[in-house]
């Protein structure tokens, strides 16, 4: 295990490891880890934790590097970049797989596809499993199939005290509970996930209806009416973005089926009921996981600056989400930005497993503000804060995976789950050694606060 310290004369080597695979070009240059390392096995990670304990430093972890605020970049910490620690094992007969935390969604599914298996990982192909699953995992067809973390059967963890443990529903069950939704508040380092996987969809088809901004309300209200009649293998999304036709509002319906006839049956009702006036459309067009990943990669380009916010919402006849979201959908501050809505029913109406993930809203809305030039930072971020303050006024809380703690306080778990998570943190990481980047105080809706301990003052000297 080799650590590159921030006072090294080889600043280029330090920067390469420090910023390797950080997706967001808007980076927290005011924070600077004490040291950085790229482990290739559990023993390397254990050595890094032991070194941090010796020096009185914290530990920060990076798996895929997709967190918008680069949570892995923390002061007074050894940053453990897992990007070179990739292992996947598949048990075809049992339909299970184990994967290390830095394995990405596309990497896992390319391996699973060899055995006609599939895992509903992140829509963006290069999202690492570590952050994705710890945050809950809003993956493919989430509103129907559920959150990806619900398919986690066990985890291998290195604790804040440098002890390797296995966790599932019967062993170290409190850590297992936290691992499914705690996100950066998880008090340990997950090295490996044990997953239940699915049969690979044999036929993937999509329909898309692209409307001009003038038909936003008509198109969105139509999309909302489709939700209750969609079958369980069909995903619906509304998205505002720019394309060659100019600013537009599109409804995308993707179905994961075993044959063309089933796909046609799933997509036909929406096609027959669509409003007139589309700028462009397609119906029941063949797709593949490769084409879906390519489409998502194209709207989430590397080498750009990102800022985001989001919220969950209940169905309420007194709340007009179409009007509430209109400004955010139709006034995006840059041509690379986009906003999207996804229904969370029927999942939002189910009894869910005991886990940290606990907010159940019928609707999810998020804005990905994307731009290229640093000079646009203030304009784009001010637009996001101002616009989302209005859009989120009836939100019940936010998804931690699309959140930036520097923007605002938000609710990420139910009250009782927040309190239990803090108890688990106090038990497994009493010194707050694991540096996740979350706020020190998480506000609860009743006005109380659940406090995560601030780290103790740390020694600045190397041993």
Automatic annotation (TrEMBL):
FAD-binding PCMH-type domain location: 29-200
Q: Which SUPFAM superfamilies match?
A: FAD-binding/transporter-associated domain-like (SSF56176)
Keyword field contains Transmembrane: no
Arranged from A to Z, the UniProt key words for this protein are:
FAD, Flavoprotein, Oxidoreductase
Q: Which domain of life is it from?
A: Eukaryota
Has keyword Hydrolase?
Answer: no
Annotated Pfam families: BBE (PF08031), FAD_binding_4 (PF01565)
List the Gene Ontology MF annotations in alphabetical order: FAD binding; oxidoreductase activity
Required cofactors, per record? FAD
In terms of Gene3D superfamilies, this protein maps to:
3.30.465.10, 3.40.462.20, Uridine Diphospho-n-acetylenolpyruvylglucosamine Reductase, domain 2
Q: According to its UniProt record, which protein family does this protein belong to?
A: Belongs to the oxygen-dependent FAD-linked oxidoreductase family.
List, alphabetically, the PANTHER family matched.
BINDING OXIDOREDUCTASE, PUTATIVE (AFU_ORTHOLOGUE AFUA_1G17690)-RELATED (PTHR42973), FAD-BINDING PCMH-TYPE DOMAIN-CONTAINING PROTEIN (PTHR42973:SF39)
Q: What is this protein called in UniProt?
A: FAD-binding PCMH-type domain-containing protein
Q: Origin organism of this chain?
A: Penicillium olsonii
